[in-house]
Write a structure and sequence with these properties.
Radius of gyration: 22 Å
Shape: globular
Distance between the termini: 28 Å
CATH architecture of the largest domain: Up-down Bundle
Strand content: under 5%
Low-confidence stretches: 1-14
Structural class: mainly alpha
Oligomer: single chain
Largest sheet: none
Mean pLDDT: 80
Length: 417
């Protein structure tokens, strides 16, 4: 009888996640925000390459989007600790919605658009988008129960992956039926709707927020760095984010089309199959972690799965056919959220509420900020004549070795729940 009651109680807890009004509103806003960002990146890239014929300038526009976004994740983390996160997300979405509406107007009256207009627009989108993510990450543990944080993060991360995959597809369909101005109007409507969704979310800020807001930006940011570095758990999680993103992002995500073309001798359709396998794996991994909702030994599991990432990456570097590559890369996709989601939940649970914005902002900035460096390092090694399969093969070893070092240097990580 007691066992049946315990099972009923557990089911109530699991089903309660989508009964939380604030979480549902945040989830819907995440759908619209992520979908609009992926559509925006697609339409900017396609217009530059297809309409303007300036493929060489594409990198400038993408840098204009990514670098300000990374920097403002750090700034947004500080603001999330002293401001109302729902207002921050509202401002981010509404401002980008107005910006997209302005772009729609430019496409009606001006053609072709100068490249500097696209670069400035991308920069503003990046700045405003950088405020949304740390606010979302810091508000999540305040609106759901701790025992549901892993599941809540899996829902959010899975939603983002689906939006990143479906956004370009949806944008391509709209472009084929209408034009650029209509697509920007749709992007604007998505963002405006997302903004109105997050506005009603109520967050009770810690009392220490009043004291924190009286400090300058620099001392608050330094306090976040010091807080992470003095906590052995947060420091180890910070190191994992850095190692995984540097040694996996460049060789795998940037090197994937090169690998398909040069090693597998594949065509554009083959690359889409392999890329689709990776996306499918990431969505499946988010769903699996959400269903399992790990609550015990998450640090140890993250280390085991991180080592598995290295092993599977070794296997991928040795694949010789497209279908073999698809089969292996699905597992890489599954392992990515399987490592990241429990770690994010652990950070949110073990961080003081008045510092969670800065901690999440700094960790997001560190992981995303290393992506350009990882891309540059991969490009540099490729320029020396080293094959992409060799780069992938040797990049797997730092992942595996870092697991060994973390096991030895941070015993707390493998014991913590």
């Amino acid at each position: 009888m007691q066992e049946a009651r315990a099972q009923t109680s557990e089911l109530e807890k699991e089903s309660g996640l989508f009964q939380e009004r604030s979480f549902v509103l945040l989830w819907v806003a995440t759908i619209f925000s992520s979908l609009s960002m992926s559509m925006f990146m697609f339409v900017q890239s396609w217009y530059i390459v297809e309409e303007l014929g300036l493929s060489a300038a594409l990198g400038i526009v993408l840098i204009s989007l990514s670098i300000p976004r990374i920097i403002f994740m750090m700034i947004g983390g500080v603001l999330s600790d002293i401001r109302d996160q729902s207002k921050m997300m509202y401002f981010s979405d509404i401002s980008r919605g107005i910006l997209a509406l302005g772009m729609a107007g430019l496409f009606v009256f001006t053609h072709p658009l100068p490249i500097w207009v696209l670069a400035v627009n991308a920069m503003l989108f990046g700045i405003l988008g950088g405020l949304f993510e740390p606010a979302r990450d810091s508000v999540l543990p305040m609106i759901v129960k701790y025992e549901q944080l892993t599941r809540a993060n899996s829902v959010i991360q899975g939603t983002i992956q689906i939006a990143l995959f479906s956004g370009p597809l949806l944008a391509g369909i709209v472009l084929s039926l209408t034009g650029y101005e209509s697509l920007f109007i749709i992007i604007s409507l998505l963002l405006l709707t997302g903004g109105f969704c997050v506005r009603p979310i109520n967050v009770i800020k810690p009392e220490s927020t009043n004291t924190l807001s009286s400090k300058g930006f620099g001392p608050q940011l330094k306090e976040g760095f010091v807080y992470i570095w003095r906590s052995r758990l947060l420091k180890s999680l910070f190191i994992i984010a850095v190692v995984v993103n540097f040694f996996l992002t460049g060789p795998m995500f940037m090197g994937l089309p090169i690998f398909v073309e040069s090693v597998l001798q594949g065509k554009a359709s083959d690359f889409s199959y392999v890329q689709g396998g990776l996306t499918f794996g990431m969505i499946a991994g988010s769903i699996i972690i959400g269903v399992l909702n790990l609550r015990r030994k998450r640090g140890a599991y993250a280390l085991y799965l991180m080592a598995a990432q290295g092993m599977v990456m070794l296997a991928f570097s040795q694949t010789t056919t497209v279908w073999m590559a698809i089969a292996v890369i699905i597992f890489i996709g599954i392992l990515n959220p399987a490592v990241n989601i429990p770690l994010i939940a652990m950070i949110q649970e073990h961080t003081d509420k008045e510092k969670i914005g800065r901690v999440m902002g700094l960790i997001r900035m560190a992981s995303l900020g290393l992506m350009p460096l990882s891309y540059a390092a991969t490009s540099g090694v490729l320029g020396l004549g080293v094959s992409i399969s060799t780069i992938m093969f040797w990049s797997a070893f730092p992942l595996i070795m870092s697991v060994v070092l973390l096991f030895i240097c941070f015993p707390l990580l493998r014991a913590v729940d």
